[in-house]
Amino acid sequence: MELEAVRLLAAGLCMGLGAIGPGIGEGYVGGKALEAIGRNPSIQGKIIPNMIVAMAITESTAIYSLVIALIILFVM
Amino acid sequence: MKEITIPAKIIFSLGPVPITDANLGALLVTLGIFIVAFMASRKFSIIPTRIQIVFEMLTEYVMEQLENAFGDKERARNFFPMFITLLLFLIVANELSLVPLIFQITYQGDDLFRLPASDFSLTVALALTIFVISHIMALKISPINHLKNFIAIEPLLKARKPMEFFQATVDFMIGFLNIIGEFAKVISLSARLFGNLFAGEVMVMVIISLASFTRFIVPIPFIVLSQMGGLVQALVFFLLSIQFIALAIDGATPPAESKEQLSHS
Predict the structure, then answer these.
(1) ipTM value of the model?
(2) With an 8 Å Cβ cutoff, is B191 touching chain A?
(3) Does 3.30.2350.10 match the CATH number of domain A1-75?
(4) In angstroms, what separates the C-alpha of A66 from chain B's closest C-alpha?
(5) B192–A59 CB contact, under 8 Å
(6) For chain B, how long is the longest CA-to-CA vector?
(7) What start and end residues bound the annotated signal peptide (chain A) (predicted)?
(8) Cβ contacts (< 8 Å) between A49 and chain B: which residues?
(9) Which residues pair with B71 in a beta bridge?
(10) pLDDT digits (tens, 9 = 90+) for B100-159
(11) Rounded to whole angstroms, how far apart are CA atoms A76 and B116?
(12) Do the beta carbons of residue B62 and residue B80 sit within 8 Å?
């Protein structure tokens, strides 16, 4: 394969594989938060900010693979 | 389609210091915050104006977060100016693309401004600042207790039985892992902010340049998504940096008076 083709393939694979874990994790976080709200709706205001922070942390591995994909595409 | 580059473009240089478009963007944000804060703080009244309400809400929110993290009013008050600066700067910087026509200004063919946080050097600088401050604060409280978290040699010297010795060796190794963890914190904190902002920019740009008819209404949901991401990431950066400093301070206070230990991330 040519170098250009390998680069594009690598970036796509990097992003696609890296998004699997965070997808599952974020779904889990959101589901659990909704479960907690369903159990006690009055505590919603406290759960939502914590959920967003937890989601953003869960997302970070996807962001790393995104950064690497961007580096492969635009820098290398 | 605009050219997508990860390093910021150098616009001009002041002596040996190159000034990039991201620097100019950050300068613009700083000026904007300064002007708005100056206008807002000129006349405080019991019956607040709208802008005063916004600032009061922000102040209360930051103070609440700091008090929750440090569990100490005096310390929260000491850290308050730094964290409100961080939060204000990041919120305004991440929403800079809502200002109309600002990214159309060109200077000698290059864009004059760029989203500040889509330059890796800015986010690394912010994360390094948090890192250095957290360690200085912890060393100021108790150098020995702080270093004990990283070089756990004390249980190794105290160990008498083989089982204790084994436990002490494991602790010693965990100390090394903590050293790596400290650097991982800096990388993760900076890469998170940079990745989100840069990805948002690239996504909108790709959608716009997809075809001639995707230029007008189609990018709106993507712009909304990237702005939301920017807001959430500003908040997350702020909350995580509070947590890092609180963790470092917590680790340095002697066990007798330290609060409930947060788990080491």
Answers:
(1) 0.77
(2) yes
(3) no
(4) 7
(5) yes
(6) 77
(7) none
(8) 235
(9) none
(10) 888 788 877 777 888 888 888 999 999 999 999 999 999 988 888 888 888 877 777 777
(11) 23
(12) yes
